[in-house]
Every structure is written in structure tokens, then in C-alpha cells.
């Protein structure tokens, strides 16, 4: 072997546009150039021969084998690998000649600059891009069929200068590559035992996009960064679809499996459609507060200023801000993350059902019932954190069941469980009551010491982040205590530990978030709707098994602990328990599917489905069940209000949904200086506001909470105003138009 001699290897297939540039770039240091061609039909081989390369022809099987074959034909001590669309810059050439004379290293990492769509991509996970491309022939070998790399025995150095990679100049080239690479990636994944799941199909592309565009700063690459992040997400999705396709093709009875997969997919499509209907409702108060925050605060501002006066963790707001940067601030855009998390929760419910039992009817019943759940659909459409929290709760339960039932559980499940409980607590505080479910289940199953050690370490991240977050949490708690002392009625809004609130949990879980003025009709409907659910739950208790005990605890423990905790800190409201709704439908479905009579099973299931459809129909078609219609109310006063009129709220400031929708043509103010006003305070403030105003539009929204003694209305009377007209808007309440004949 020729000591310190450098052999350059290049594999080719129809590279006539690149090969000359590539070979000329290594002319200053290459003692020989080996070209292994896979059957080019253009002038690649002729050009390479003319430039002095040694040509070998070999049918392509995979990248590692092709490149190892090329290395085997070299005579130099060192191998330098180039692709035909790469060049070695002049500075790199000089550095390579010096590097091979150093005795300490058997290989060198070399950085690579990537040019895609005719511009250098400095981020988007294409840079930094360092790999071993220079190594001693006897010390290294290529491994990996698609994304191949050199494995070396010995010390590895690093060069400073880069080689340049001229990748896809057009979208067509990228798509052509994607089809070829995803085919090989799918084959390699199947060989390694990877299994398809819809969870991966949903998750992998989404995570890929966020990793490249945000975490790897792809946005700094401009439109190319966004485009490449999007294309690579499609790349990931295509790979998993091909894994599924190849797996189905290789199984002995693909028709049944394919049919089941198609049914599940179609049900998920139905779930998406049901959650898209009437999604363009007006934002209500809490939604508008979140929307206003993500639009007007920076990420740092959300963490340091906004969140201190809010009563929730920051993760949902940070997620929503990242989303709106790309998709804007329309009602649909703001609510779409909740829809995504809602669909993923639906699918996770199905996966959890599969972990509980092989009973296909049970799995499909749970899937269909949560798909059509009016309660889950309503909050999957809301731009709030509850749908996101429900997803992370379901994900933590799913990963925990895998840890609990598998003594040699994959490290991935430990990792997912650890991350999911961190994300869960930093999305919403109420799911903290889910933690006792994990600990109790583990104690009941009497897991061994090694398992408990791993289980403990999964909680370390949430403990660390919890400690770091503690100062902010203390500020939030102090603010909450102040609000409760200032506004005693707030306890009712926040949710105290009362029988009424407990009853509302059941009512909303069964029939959805409905409210009827005819209470006798409402209670009658709740009673009738409860019958099939009670049958299912009763039978589930009778037919309980070890694994269903976890689901039972998932449903019961958070409710019990949350109810007790709300005696001191009121937070027991039905919508805060969206994260246990999968457990509710799993237990109901378990009870129904384990009935002794198949006919009875199907009858009860049909009744359950009819209850869901009935609740959904009322929600869809009765606009009184929709969210507060601030959009219509604000649009109305913007149109009819005059310059010499004012809009007044019995609050220290204008309510956020008004600020969100108004065009700002008319003066709008809060009539009070504090949350606990008195008549003198309001009179002084109103005196300033009403100067020169002939008319006032007064919103009674939350009047009984912040102005229970009606000081604002009394003050208007004192200043000579009287009610001329009353307008009503769904959820917003009445808007009183007060006029004054003389100023």
C-alpha cells in the first residue's frame, strides 16, 4: 500500500453534468480516482475516462456496498469519498494533503456546505453537516443502506474547511430523490423490525417539520427553509406509508388487516370532519385572551409578563404562538391546534383499547364513541389548552401501560412517558391529579426495584422544570387568592366542590356542553341519555380486569382528588376534566362489549351512538349552544355607534374579545378603577368618560360578578341617561343603549 497516498472514490449514475467539476476539484491531491458506475446511459463514463479515472461497473444494491466496493479497488493508504455532485474546495485540498501526514488519526470529519434550490442552506438541519469522508483504507468501512456512514477503528480528527454539495436545483429533482430514498428507507426500517402505526404517521411528519423549521432554525433560511421543512415532513410521512404498504403486502391475510386499517382511517377522517363543522364561531372571552397574548407578546413576554397574571402553564400559549406565526390569527387557525390534538387523542384512545383487549368490537366501540362525543368535539374546537392536555394525558397513559405490562419495555416508551408528563403539567395544572394513577397502579402491580428506579428517573425532568417554574407558580397562586378575596363570586365561576359541579361533570360527559332554558326538558334528556352509559359503566365494574383497573383509576382518581382539593382551591369545573374523557368512553365500551348477549351489546351501543348524535345535532344547529358571539356584538356597535357616543364595560378595562374584534372607531372604556368598585369611584370615572357623550352602549357582560350592586347603571341614571333600546347577543348578553337628550 502506498503510504500517504490518497485515493478518491466516486459512485455514479448518469452524472455527466457533475462528474467533470467533481474530478477537477480533487486534481491537486488525488493520486488516483476510482469511479464505480451503476450503468449510466449518458456520457458519465466517457468523461471520467478522459479525465484519467479508473472505471468499474457494478449493479447498484445499496450505498454502503457500492462505496465499499469502490474503496476495495483503491491502492492508496487513504480513501477520500466524494459524491458526483460534490466538490472539494481549494482550501480543503491543501488541508487534506497535510492531514494524511499526521500519525495520530485514522480518519477525519469534514464539514459539508449544502446548496439546495440554488442557495446555501445554513440551517434547517442541513447544517452543521459533518461526517467522516477521509479515512485509512484498512481502518474504516461504510455501513447503512441509505444514510450510510463510515465506521472507523481508532482516533478521528476534524478538518476545518468544507466540501461543497450541490444538491437538488429543482423541486422535481427533490421529489425524484424522495421516491427513491423513501423506498430504501422503508425496506431498511422493516429489516430492523420497525412497525407501522397511525400514531407515527401523524407524529413523525409533524415533529420533523417543527424540528427543522423551529428547533434547527430553518426559518433563518427564508422560504427555502420553510419549503424544505415541509418537504422533509412529507418525506417522513411517505416513508411510513411505504412501511405500511410493504408490511401489508407481506402478511398472510392482508385483506382483513387492510380493511381494519381503512376503517380506522375513515373513522379518523369522520372525527376530523365533525371537529371542523361550525369551527368558525366567534372567539369567546378566554379564547380571545390567549389569542391577544400570542399576537402581542414575544415568547419571552409570554413567559415573564402575561403568564404571571394568568392561571395556566405556558406550553399551550407558546405552541399557539409558534402556530400563528405560520397560519395567522383567524378563528379557524387559532382553533386548529386543538383539533389536531383532539384527533390524536381519538387515535390514542383506540390504541389504548388495543392494549386492554383483543376484542375488536370493544376497540371500535371506544373509537366510534369518542369520535362522536359532543363533549370532546366541543373542546377539540376551542382555542384553549384542554384538548392539548387531554392528548398528553392519553399519551402518558398509553406509554405507561406499555411500561407496566412489559418487563423489557423499549427505552422509547420510558422516554415518551417522561416527556409526556412534563408536557402535560406545563400545558395545564389540573392533570397533576393523574400522577397518583401511575403510582397507585405501579404499587398494585408490585413492580421490581429496577423498574422503580427507571420510573423514578422519568419524573426527574418534571421535578427539575417544576422547581424552575415554582416562583412563577407562586405569583399565579397569589394572584388567584387575591382574586378570590376581591370577588367572592369568582369561586362559583372557578368551580367549587359542590354537588352541582359534580352533577355537571356527568351531564356534560354524557350529552355534551348543552344548556337549555327549559330545565325540566334538560333534566329529562340527561336522565334518558344517562341510561346506556350507566349500563356500560355498571357492567364494566362487574367485568373489570387488572388492566381495566388502570382505566378506572384514570377516570375516578382525578375526579375524587380534584373535588377534595377544590374545597380549599376552587377549580372543579367539568371542562378541566377533558383529560379523563378517554377513560370514560373506554370503560363504557368495555362494559358494553362484555355483555352476555351480543344483541344486547349492539342495542346498547346503538343507543350510546344515538345519544352522541343527538347531543351533536343540538350543538350544531342551535346557535344558542355556540360560543359567545362577540364578533357580531362588536361589529354591530362599530357600525351603529357615533363619534359622540361611548361603549362602557363594568370592569377596569375593555374586555379582550371587544379589543380583538373592534375597528376602534368609537371610544370604549372600562367604567371602574378596580375589581371592587364603589359608587363614588365609578361616578368620578364616569364623569370624565361621559363628557360630551349623547349616547352610551353598555355591555352587561359579567355584571353580576364585577358590579353586583349595579353601580354603573345607577351612575348613568344620575347623569341623566335612560335606556332607549336593548340588544341581545348570544353568550355576550344584553347591550343597553342609553341616551341623554341634553348635554
Automatic annotation (TrEMBL):
Residue ranges crossing the lipid bilayer per the database entry: 198-215, 227-245, 257-278, 332-354, 361-379, 385-404, 411-439, 451-470, 482-500, 520-541, 553-579, 599-621
The Glycosyltransferase RgtA/B/C/D-like domain, residue ranges: 312-473
Pfam family, one: PMT_2
Keyword annotations of the record: Membrane, Transmembrane, Transmembrane helix
Listed InterPro entries: Glyco_trans_2-like, Nucleotide-diphossugar_trans, RgtA/B/C-like
Record has Transmembrane as a keyword: yes
Superkingdom per UniProt: Bacteria
Full protein name: Glycosyltransferase 2-like domain-containing protein
Species of provenance: Candidatus Woesebacteria bacterium RIFCSPLOWO2_01_FULL_37_19
Amino acid at each position: 500500500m502506498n503510504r500517504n497516498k490518497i485515493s478518491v472514490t466516486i459512485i455514479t449514475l448518469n452524472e455527466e453534468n457533475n462528474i467533470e467539476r467533481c474530478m477537477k476539484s480533487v486534481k491537486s491531491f488525488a493520486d488516483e480516482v476510482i469511479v464505480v458506475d451503476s450503468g449510466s446511459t449518458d456520457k458519465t463514463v466517457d468523461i471520467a475516462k478522459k479525465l484519467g479515472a479508473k472505471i468499474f461497473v457494478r449493479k447498484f444494491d445499496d450505498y454502503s456496498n457500492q462505496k465499499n466496493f469502490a474503496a476495495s479497488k483503491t491502492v492508496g493508504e487513504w480513501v477520500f469519498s466524494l459524491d458526483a455532485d460534490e466538490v472539494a474546495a481549494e482550501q480543503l485540498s491543501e488541508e487534506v494533503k497535510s492531514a494524511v501526514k499526521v500519525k495520530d488519526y485514522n480518519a477525519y470529519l469534514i464539514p459539508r456546505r449544502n446548496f439546495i434550490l440554488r442557495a446555501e442552506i445554513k440551517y434547517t438541519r442541513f447544517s452543521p453537516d459533518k461526517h467522516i469522508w477521509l479515512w485509512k483504507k484498512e481502518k474504516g468501512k461504510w455501513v447503512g443502506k441509505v444514510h450510510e456512514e463510515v465506521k472507523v477503528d481508532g482516533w478521528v480528527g476534524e478538518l476545518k474547511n468544507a466540501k461543497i454539495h450541490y444538491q437538488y436545483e429543482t423541486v422535481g429533482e427533490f421529489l425524484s430523490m424522495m421516491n427513491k430514498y423513501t423506498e430504501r428507507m422503508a425496506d431498511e426500517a422493516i429489516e430492523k423490525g420497525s412497525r407501522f402505526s397511525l400514531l407515527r404517521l401523524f407524529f413523525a411528519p409533524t415533529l420533523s417539520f417543527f424540528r427543522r423549521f423551529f428547533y434547527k432554525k430553518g426559518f433563518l433560511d427564508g422560504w427555502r427553509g420553510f419549503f424544505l421543512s415541509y418537504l422533509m415532513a412529507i418525506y417522513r410521512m411517505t416513508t411510513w406509508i411505504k412501511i405500511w404498504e410493504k408490511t401489508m403486502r407481506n402478511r398472510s391475510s392482508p385483506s382483513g388487516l387492510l380493511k381494519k386499517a381503512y376503517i380506522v382511517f375513515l373513522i379518523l377522517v369522520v372525527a376530523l370532519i365533525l371537529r371542523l363543522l361550525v369551527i368558525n364561531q366567534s372567539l369567546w372571552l378566554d379564547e380571545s385572551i390567549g389569542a391577544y397574548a400570542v399576537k402581542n407578546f414575544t415568547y419571552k413576554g409570554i413567559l415573564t409578563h402575561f403568564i404571571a397574571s394568568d392561571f395556566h402553564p405556558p406550553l399551550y400559549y407558546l405552541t399557539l404562538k409558534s402556530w400563528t406565526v405560520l397560519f395567522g390569527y383567524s378563528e379557524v387557525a387559532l382553533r386548529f391546534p386543538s383539533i389536531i390534538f383532539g384527533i390524536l387523542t381519538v387515535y390514542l384512545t383506540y390504541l389504548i383499547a388495543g392494549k386492554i383487549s383483543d376484542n375488536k368490537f370493544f376497540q371500535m366501540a371506544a373509537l366510534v364513541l369518542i369520535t362522536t362525543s359532543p363533549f370532546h368535539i366541543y373542546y377539540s374546537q376551542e382555542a384553549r389548552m384542554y384538548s392539548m392536555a387531554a392528548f398528553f394525558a392519553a399519551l402518558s397513559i398509553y406509554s405507561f401501560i406499555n411500561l407496566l405490562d412489559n418487563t423489557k419495555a423499549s427505552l422509547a416508551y420510558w422516554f415518551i412517558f417522561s416527556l409526556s408528563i412534563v408536557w402535560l403539567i406545563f400545558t395545564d395544572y389540573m392533570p397533576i391529579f393523574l400522577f397518583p394513577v401511575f403510582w397507585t397502579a405501579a404499587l398494585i402491580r408490585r413492580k421490581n426495584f429496577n423498574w422503580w428506579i427507571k420510573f423514578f428517573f422519568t419524573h426527574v425532568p418534571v421535578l427539575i422544570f417544576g422547581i424552575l417554574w415554582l416562583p412563577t407558580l407562586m405569583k399565579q397562586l397569589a394572584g388567584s387568592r387575591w382574586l378570590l378575596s376581591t370577588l367572592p363570586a369568582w369561586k362559583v365561576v372557578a368551580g367549587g366542590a359542590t354537588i352541582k359541579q359534580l352533577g355537571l361533570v356527568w351531564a356534560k360527559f354524557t350529552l355534551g356542553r348543552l344548556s337549555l332554558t327549559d330545565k325540566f326538558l334538560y333534566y329529562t334528556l340527561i336522565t334518558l341519555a344517562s341510561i346506556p352509559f350507566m349500563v356500560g359503566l355498571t357492567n364494566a365494574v362487574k367485568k373489570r380486569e387488572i388492566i381495566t383497573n388502570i382505566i378506572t383509576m384514570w377516570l375516578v382518581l382525578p375526579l375524587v382528588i380534584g373535588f377534595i382539593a377544590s374545597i380549599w382551591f376552587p377549580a372543579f369545573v367539568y371542562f378541566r376534566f377533558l383529560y379523563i374523557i378517554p377513560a370514560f368512553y373506554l370503560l363504557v365500551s368495555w362494559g358494553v362489549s362484555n355483555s352476555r348477549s351480543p344483541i344486547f351489546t349492539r342495542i346498547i351501543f346503538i343507543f350510546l351512538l344515538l345519544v352522541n348524535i343527538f347531543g351533536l345535532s343540538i350543538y350544531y344547529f342551535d346557535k344558542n349552544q355556540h360560543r359567545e358571539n362577540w364578533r357580531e356584538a362588536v361589529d354591530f356597535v362599530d357600525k351603529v355607534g357615533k363619534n359622540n357616543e361611548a361603549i362602557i364595560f363594568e370592569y377596569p378595562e375593555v374586555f379582550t374579545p371587544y379589543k380583538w374584534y373592534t375597528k376602534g372607531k368609537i371610544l370604549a372604556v372600562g367604567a371602574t378603577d378596580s375589581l371592587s368598585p364603589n359608587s363614588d369611584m365609578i361616578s368620578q370615572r364616569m364623569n370624565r368618560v361621559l363628557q360630551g357623550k349623547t349616547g352610551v352602549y353598555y355591555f352587561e357582560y359579567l355584571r353580576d360578578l364585577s358590579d353586583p350592586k349595579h353601580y354603573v347603571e345607577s351612575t348613568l341614571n344620575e347623569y341623566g341617561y335612560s335606556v332607549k333600546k336593548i340588544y341581545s347577543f348570544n353568550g355576550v348578553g344584553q347591550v343597553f343603549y342609553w341616551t341623554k337628550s341634553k348635554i
